[in-house]
Amino acid sequence: MATSARVALLPGDGIGPEVMAVAEAVLKTLIHGHDLPLAYDVLPWPATDWHRRHGAMMPEDALPRLREYQALLLGALGDPGPLSDPQRYCLPDGVSLAPLLTLRKGLDLWACERPARFYPGTVQYLADDRARDLDMLVIRENSEGEYVGQGGRLRADTREEIATQLEVFTYTATERLIRHAFERARQRAAERADSNSPRRFDGADGEPRESQVCLITKRNAQAFWGTLYDRVFEEVAADYPDVATHHELVDAAAMKFVQAPWRFDVVVASNLHGDILTDLAAVLAGGLGVAPSANLNPADPSQPALFEPTHGSAPDIAGQGIADPRATLFSLALMLDWLGEKEPIFYDHRPWQSPSGPSLPRREKSFRTIFSSAARHLHETLVSDLAAGHPACGTDQIGARIQGALGGGR
Ligand code: IPM
Ligand code: MN
Questions:
Q1: Distance (Å, rounded) from C-alpha 91 to C-alpha 88?
Q2: Using CA of residue 336, residue 385, residue 267, residue 314, what is the dihedral sign?
Q3: Whose Cα sits closest to atom 12 in ligand 1?
Q4: Which of 27, 51, 128, 208 is most buried, with most CB under 10 Å away?
Q5: Ligand 1 atom 4: the closest Cα is on which residue?
Q6: Are 110 and 300 in contact (CB under 8 A)?
Q7: 214 pLDDT exceeds 70?
Q8: CA 355 – ligand 2 centroid, Å
């Protein structure tokens, strides 16, 4: 049984190393301030620079090495920038971004959670003030669907070229994803009840419910997988009579996210639909600068989870020290919270060595308490920092401000 959690920080490309430097400093502050039983390594891969030196984005044994950790925090992958340097070492997207899909699939992280909540102080893109009530969790299928990478190009690069791209949807992956969405809906309702801020959603029977799951498909044009998703949704929903259900076609969902985003709670979508809708949801919640994401295997806690900001490597601003590190910091908060949820694996009453030096006689708090209070502390600090409405400033200044606020007590 482990006495401390191990995590890996993967800075990656472009603005990744800049925002990760802030995340590392903040993590150190939290480790000391909360006596977190947590050790971390910073890995130089996956990264375009690793490819420049070794001819691959990551070592061949990357997956087994990453499995040694309980969680991974990734900065960004892609064009390292800066765009002003035409000589920079730059790879095709298919190469530089491949590790993302390799990690999601190789570590079997089948659920991608992207919370989108509006916090005062972020950019409000919608004129309707009700949009400030936006608080949704988009759960994206992360293992199959449109991203299976099957198909090919026949007579490539000729005028007779034929490209095929297969989509694969299985009962197993659909069922576990939809069930997870209902579990999360219940959990969110319970958290809202605890904090005295319930929400109401109309059930199909006209009775109000405290949470909702909205299923996204394109079943009017893609009836095969649409019917499978529909059937499974109905089947699973029967086990959750306390959760309201809803369905939207993906195009209508895009429209309704803009018209009335406050009507959504948990949204469950296929890999590609979820990808597109989460960029939209991120903008409604203040932009990619504050949008976190989590890739999880909710059924197998022994798989390391992968946390990452929803943004990319932003080569247009790389190296300028102006990237917003808060999406990575919100992702770090999700990571700490998730490590607390893994308590059954790590929980241990034996004495342990505090990262700040002295050996403590006996740890009185459980992992769950320690990690979730650090996660909450970071999350609340970020929310207050946004609410303070500081004028735009650099990556390091935002980092220093957050660290200062974190140092000021728990
Ligand atoms: C994301 C990204 C990736 C995806 C790309 C880079 C492959 O857009 O994480 O949302 O589509 O999953
Ligand atoms: Mn995306």
A1: 10
A2: negative
A3: 275
A4: 27
A5: 275
A6: no
A7: yes
A8: 36
- H-only helix segments in 238-270: 250-259
- Amino acid (1-letter code) at residue 372: S
Instruction: Say whether 394 sits in a helix, a strand or coil.
Output: coil
**Which domain covers residue 54, as residue numbers?**
1-107+304-410
Pair 68, 118 in one domain: no
Half-sphere exposure of 181 (CA within 13 A, CB side): 37
The SS3 assignment for 191 reads: helix
Q: What is the DSSP letter of 292?
A: E
When pLDDT is cut at 50, 70 and 90, the band that residue 361 belongs to is very low
Q: Report the SS3 class of residue 274.
A: helix
Q: How far is CA 14 from CA 88, 295, 300, 399, in A?
A: 11, 21, 32, 18
* Residue with CA closest to ligand 1 atom 8: 275
d(CA 178, CA 139) in angstroms, rounded, equals 9
User: In the predicted model, what is the mean pLDDT of the chain?
Assistant: 93
Distance CA 223, CA 32 (A): 54
The Cα-based distances of 61 to 54, 64, 94, 171, 180 in angstroms read: 14, 6, 20, 31, 31
Pocket of ligand 1 (CB under 6 A): 97, 100, 275
Distance 177 CA to ligand 2 centre (A): 19
Query: How far is 276 from 21, CA to CA, in rounded Å?
Result: 29
Which residue blocks in 215-262 are alpha helix, DSSP H? 223-237, 250-259
pLDDT at residue 346 is higher than 90: no
Task: Tokens 């308490």: give the residue.
Answer: 369
Question: How far is residue 236's CA from residue 252's CA, in Å, rounded to a whole number?
Answer: 23
Are the C-beta atoms of 274 and 112 separated by less than 8 Å?
Answer: yes
Q: Tens digit of pLDDT for each residue in 267-311? A: 999 999 999 999 999 999 999 999 999 999 999 988 999 999 999
Residue 405 located in a structural domain: yes
122 within some domain: yes
Compute the residue count for the chain: 410
366 Ramachandran zone, left/alpha/beta (phi>0; psi -120 to 50): beta
Angstrom CA distances, 20 to 52, 313, 338, stand at 21, 12, 19
Residues 29 and 146 in one domain: no
Residue 263 is given by DSSP the state G
Give me the number of domains the chain comprises. 2
Among 277, 176, 183, 164, smallest CA distance to 229 is for: 176
Measured CA to CA, the distance from residue 261 to residue 34 in angstroms comes to 36
